[in-house]
Amino acid sequence: SQKIEQNSEALNIQEGKTATLTCNYTNYSPAYLQWYRQDPGRGPVFLLLIRENEKEKRKERLKVTFDTTLKQSLFHITASQPADSATYLCALEGSSYKLIFGSGTRLLVRP
Amino acid sequence: NAGVTQTPKFQVLKTGQSMTLQCAQDMNHEYMSWYRQDPGMGLRLIHYSVGAGITDQGEVPNGYNVSRSTTEDFPLRLLSAAPSQTSVYFCASQRAGGLGELFFGEGSRLTVL
Lengths: 111, 113
Description:
With 111 residues, chain A is mostly beta strands. Chain A is built from no helices and 11 strands. In chain A, strand 6 and strand 7 form a beta hairpin.
């Protein structure tokens, strides 16, 4: 069956360090993958989209990689700040018009 | 620019009651969808629409009904509420073509007693 896996345990890091979050998937061949940020009590907010033919995408302190052979995406936040503390969701195209989400990983950045 | 607006933000129902969660977007997006979010299970797609008059089922459609009479509005109806439908519901919209970011509303927290 199709599955998207994100680490359910919170990632706890020191301010200034690089946070790396993982998204693994099985039995999908997505044309693209997206990352969202969700704060408590709020709706998810789009961060980055990466297509299957792109290995890496950057936006300010954010970097996303997409390895279709490993079926994995890595999401990096460099020089992390306490304001980066949130839950990060990966999402990929399941089939036409259906974006399927992982359960998210909570990031805690300690001052 | 309001984006995606959901109402109500909170609702408590008794088992068997019906209600409608409202969703409106002012971005002229063709694609709209409803997700539910439960602890540890992520966002699960309930129903979606690729344009006015067109709707289709997502991953967990049972117990829910939708219609899309206008581009702007995409209401979600609970026909006979059950405790298993206690959840946070998110409406989202997307530009035409099914590619690109989803714009989410702030969510509607529903409790069914």
